[in-house]
From TrEMBL:
Entry keyword set: Transferase
Designated name of the protein: HECT-type E3 ubiquitin transferase
Gene3D superfamilies, sorted: Leucine-rich Repeat Variant
UniProt-listed InterPro entries: ARM-like (IPR011989), ARM-type_fold (IPR016024), HECTD1/TRIP12-like (IPR045322), TPR_TRIP12_N (IPR057948)
Organism: Vanilla planifolia
GO MF, one example: ubiquitin protein ligase activity
UniProt-listed Pfam families: TPR_TRIP12_N (PF25579)
Chain ranges of the E3 ubiquitin-protein ligase TRIP12-like TPR repeats domain: 20-144
Superkingdom per UniProt: Eukaryota
Length: 559
């Protein structure tokens, strides 16, 4: 393969571009002498490059396109082929409306033939430029003409600028890919994975987006998604996320998370592969960026949470998605060690986000995932899982938030943990205030007994009128539909709180917990103090009242 230059200047005796191009083409066609051919190609290029708008309005697109494609296809000299490729590029650039005509003349097969037998880098690079211009308007023709795999396989030979052009063409073409076109692109996947890690950010971004588009195109076929996984798409995306951590959450990072989420949502092999590659350690690092960086809002945070949400199956199942969800449950049960490591990495990060005061949408996503994790974790591994995450204090905090989207899953977590580990959790739930928070929820309902439901809802709603039911992964499943109505009733937490209190935290149960005695004494003293203050502020004042108030304060302080 050689590289040649110096074709830009015309030889003496060149046909002038002011001649009628159709006449030139007709003359050359009857007398295809090399010199005449080159002169005609120069004339076409000069007219396209320097012609006035009036000249270009009457440009003979069809005969010129046919001539250029024929010149590129014939077994001509290096100079003829290079000028023909350049002429097509000029034609597409100067007259974008001519691209359909250019394609209909057989340009793509002619270019692919040149690339397959690539002898000169100059010609190959011009051919790539032409393909990129065509793909901008007719990507499907490039894809189905076989240009994607051909260009990707040659991309390492090109300069960085031409590699950018090549990846732009590939990106545009893959955007029109369907499952029926899989055979035209799968062989290009390993090279695309390599380009996704390219040091040039523009090339890497294009390659990453191309892989994402492939995954999106194949969501209807788990077989094709499995094939992408086998060819390195999943491992490459994880490697990219690992390398990018610390450099901020940029577009390539978001696209990589989106790729993994979309693939895992429709492929069990991808889900298992993610667990085997310890994706939880990667996700947890990005999750911990949320409390420390105010610029990571919900739009960015949800891509982290979405990936967790497809790996850990939901407990409430959509009937149309049951089979896939049940299979995910089998993975969790068949690979308990993999799931435990994943859950351990994730749970600690979720707790830190929940206690950090993140936005309500983010907290809702986190608490929902925490519930799913505790539900699927076995009783024998739960203590190890909870050891480094102060779940009880986190739950106590969540149960003070007057938002039913937070209260309901938080109460379900309490119920799940007490069902699986009653002895292990009881002390910490009493000590850290979970039991007290549940008491307050029940008391809140009692205070509104006999009043309108609207008053209770008003108290609970606060700033939380928005529904978060479909916050996670509403865009992933083609079968599911968003109802548009909230599935959590504002008063729905009450019966759950009452049931939990009656089942696990009855007075006779918590009275045996050492720390609860102190809590009870403080609560009783505080109630006495409240009544005494109310009496004092009502105007009923006496020295005995003052002494009583002082005595109660003393008991509170001693407690």
């Amino acid at each position: 393969m050689s590289n040649s230059n110096g074709v830009d200047s015309a030889e003496s005796g060149i046909i002038q571009p002011t001649w009628d191009l159709e006449t030139i083409i007709a003359t050359v066609s009857t007398n295809p002498e090399p010199g005449m051919m080159i002169s005609a190609l120069h004339a076409i290029r000069e007219t396209l490059a320097n012609g006035s708008d009036e000249q270009l309005d009457f440009f003979p697109v069809l005969p010129v396109a046919q001539f250029l494609v024929k010149s590129l296809s014939r077994n001509g000299t290096f100079e003829e082929n290079l000028l023909a490729a350049r002429g097509i590029a000029y034609l597409c650039e100067s007259l974008p409306s001519s691209i359909n005509t250019v394609v209909s003349c057989g340009t793509i097969p002619a270019i692919c033939e040149q690339l397959q037998g690539m002898e000169y880098l100059d010609i190959a690079e011009e051919c790539v430029k032409v393909l990129e211009k065509i793909a901008d308007q007719d990507p499907l023709s490039c894809l189905r003409g076989g240009a994607v795999t051909l260009v990707v396989n040659l991309i390492v030979f090109f300069s960085c600028n031409i590699q950018r052009t090549a990846m732009s063409m590939v990106d545009l073409s893959i955007g029109s890919c369907t499952e029926e076109d899989a055979s035209l692109v799968v062989d290009a996947v390993p090279t695309l994975c390599s380009m996704a890690k390219h040091e040039d950010l523009q090339i890497a971004d294009s390659a990453t987006f191309s892989l994402l588009n492939l995954v999106r195109s194949f969501i209807g076929s788990s077989v094709l998604l499995d094939e992408l996984c086998k060819r390195g798409v999943i491992s490459t995306s994880i490697e990219i996320l690992s390398d990018l951590f610390g450099a901020g959450v940029d577009e390539r990072c978001i696209n990589s998370f989106d790729l993994l989420t979309t693939a895992a949502a429709h492929s069990l092999l991808v889900t298992r592969t993610l667990l085997e590659l310890n994706v939880g350690s990667i996700i947890s690092k990005y999750l911990l960026l949320i409390p420390d960086h105010s610029d990571i809002g919900y739009v960015k945070a949800h891509v982290f949470l979405d990936l967790i949400d497809v790996i850990v199956p939901p407990i409430t199942k959509d009937a149309e998605d049951n089979q896939l969800i049940f299979c995910r449950e089998h993975i969790i049960r068949d690979e308990p060690n993999l799931f435990f490591q994943f859950a351990k990495d994730i749970l600690s990060a979720l707790v830190q986000i929940l206690v950090s005061g993140a936005k309500m949408e983010i907290r809702y996503g986190c608490v929902g995932i925490m519930y799913n994790i505790t539900y699927f974790t076995t009783s024998d591994t739960l203590p190890d899982l909870m050891k480094n995450a102060n779940i009880s204090r986190c739950l106590a905090n969540l149960l003070t938030i007057k938002n039913c989207h937070i209260l309901v899953p938080s109460l379900k977590i309490v119920d799940t943990l007490m069902t699986k580990l009653p002895g292990y959790c009881l002390d910490s739930f009493v000590e850290d205030g979970v039991v007290n928070a549940i008491d307050e929820l029940v008391l809140l309902h009692s205070e509104f007994a006999g009043r309108s439901e609207a008053r209770l809802e008003e108290t609970l709603a606060g700033h939380a009128h928005d529904c978060f039911c479909d916050v996670l992964n509403s865009h992933l499943s083609s079968s599911s539909s968003i109802s548009g109505s909230c599935r959590v009733e504002n008063s729905g937490f009450v019966e759950l709180a009452k049931a939990i209190k009656a089942t696990y935290f009855a007075e006779e149960v918590i009275s045996n917990v050492g720390y609860s005695k102190t809590i009870k004494k403080i609560k009783d003293s505080c109630m006495e103090l409240k009544n005494a203050v109310d009496l004092f502020t009502s105007g009923v004042f006496s020295s005995s009242n003052e002494a009583n108030l002082s005595s109660i304060l003393g008991r509170v302080m001693r407690s």
